[in-house]
Amino acid sequence: MVMLLGQYSTGKTTFIKHLLKSNFPGAHIGPEPTTDRFVVVMSGSDERTVPGNTIAVQADMPFNGLTTFGGAFLSKFECSQMPHPLLDHITFVDTPGVLSGEKQRTQRSYDFTGVTSWFAAKCDVILLLFDPHKLDISDEFKRVISSLRGNEDKIRVVLNKADQVDTQQLMRVYGALMWSLGKVLNTPEVMRVYIGSFNDKPVNESAVGPIGKELFEKEQEDLLADLKDIPKKACDRRVNEFVKRARAAKIHAYIIGQLKKEMPAMMGKAKAQQRLIDNLQDEFAKVQREYHLPAGDFPDVEHFKQVLAGYSIDKFEKMKPKMVQAVDDMLAHDIPDLLKNFSNPYQ
After folding, report:
1. Are residues 31 and 105 both part of a single domain?
2. How far, in Å, CA of 160 to CA of 252, rounded?
3. 165 and 298 inside one domain
4. The Dynamin-type G domain covers which part of the protein (predicted)?
5. Mapped to the 3 state alphabet, what secondary structure does 65-119 carry?
């Protein structure tokens, strides 16, 4: 599964159309914010669009988890099916353009960043699309990129519509894009950026010259090679995601156990809960020291505080070391044994 994210009119729908070399049901393309819904483009026996409420309850589809975002989201979600050899291997997720200002946050009737992070966990590759005239990363887009935390290895950046500027401007645009990304993605490593013009029109040689045309063709080949590798790595990716979730569940159990341990037996439970939520960072540090856990595996403190405020810590279960031991044994023995069964997982 490949998800495309970006501000409006950066060429997300056109990118899918370009790879499929044909239109897909429900595709709307234009310079204004056209795609107003999440569209999953997947293989099907005939060309049709299936509404979100229907697709979310189908047991053979992997979208049951989206029901938690409510009917307001499902009305803005649809599945576009068509027979196509590429779609037999890869499913595309086309997203609404990220808008700037308050309208992104307050006027969407569903949790946009929540939905993107749900898809990010399920996807194999996340393509962030930019165009030379929309390099500014708005606060909303920054929030969306932050929601991809933990999936940084899946992110690829595409500078689309690059033939709209000449070579000198392209060099400046590339520098500005890297500068903007450096402010948002908190990693010391450089992101891989693919430069090109991913649409069906021939490259505008008058702007970029012959060198630019050659560069675009090479970049396009690299990106397509990257996408072709996805089905090969799908098995490894599933095991990887499973291990990641098992580790996250183990750390969650440690945190909940620690919070429950700190609660008083009789009096002043509400005050104790508020104190624990306020000093959550210190509680995380205690858990980290006690069980020798890496700091990078802990959840986001602010988000954890928000969720925790809706629960009564006193009603949590005490931690059962036996259960945590079972998870450790599974990671140490069962997963390696499972991997031995796949002499070659790509066959």
Report:
1. yes
2. 40
3. no
4. 1-232
5. HHHHHHHHHHCCEEEEEECCCHHHCCCEEECCCECCCHHHHHCCCCCHHHHHHHH
| Domain housing 319 | 243-341
Map tokens 């500005």 to a residue: 176
Report yes or no: 176 and 201 within 8 Å, Cβ to Cβ.
no
CA nearest neighbour of 193 among 169, 215, 223, 164: 223
8 A C-beta contact, residue 209 and residue 163: no
Q: Are residues 43 and 108 in the same domain?
A: yes
Any domain includes 225: no
Q: Strands (DSSP E) along the chain, which ranges?
A: 2-6, 38-43, 48-51, 77-82, 92-94, 125-130, 155-159, 193-195
Q: CA-to-CA distance for 346 and 343, rounded, in angstroms?
A: 9
Residue 76's identity, in one-letter code, is K
Count Cβ neighbours within 10 Å for each residue of 52-83 and write b for 16 or more, e otherwise. Answer: beebbeeeeeebeebeebeeebbebbbbbbbe
Strand order of the β-sheet with 155-159 is 48-51, 77-82, 38-43, 92-94, 2-6, 125-130, 155-159, 193-195
Per-residue pLDDT of the chain (347 residues), as tens digits, is 899 998 877 788 888 888 888 888 777 766 666 667 889 998 988 888 889 888 888 888 888 888 898 888 888 899 999 999 888 888 999 888 887 666 555 667 788 888 888 999 888 889 998 888 877 787 788 888 888 877 888 888 888 887 777 778 888 888 888 888 888 877 777 778 888 887 777 766 666 666 677 888 888 888 888 888 887 777 778 888 888 888 888 899 988 888 888 888 777 888 888 888 888 888 889 989 988 888 888 888 888 888 888 888 888 888 888 888 988 888 888 888 877 776 555 55
Q: Is the same domain home to 40 and 179?
A: yes
**Predicted TM-score (pTM) of this structure:** 0.78
Contact between 196 and 156 under an 8 Å Cβ cutoff? The reply is: no
Measuring CA to CA, which residue among 314, 264, 258, 309 is closest to residue 283? 258
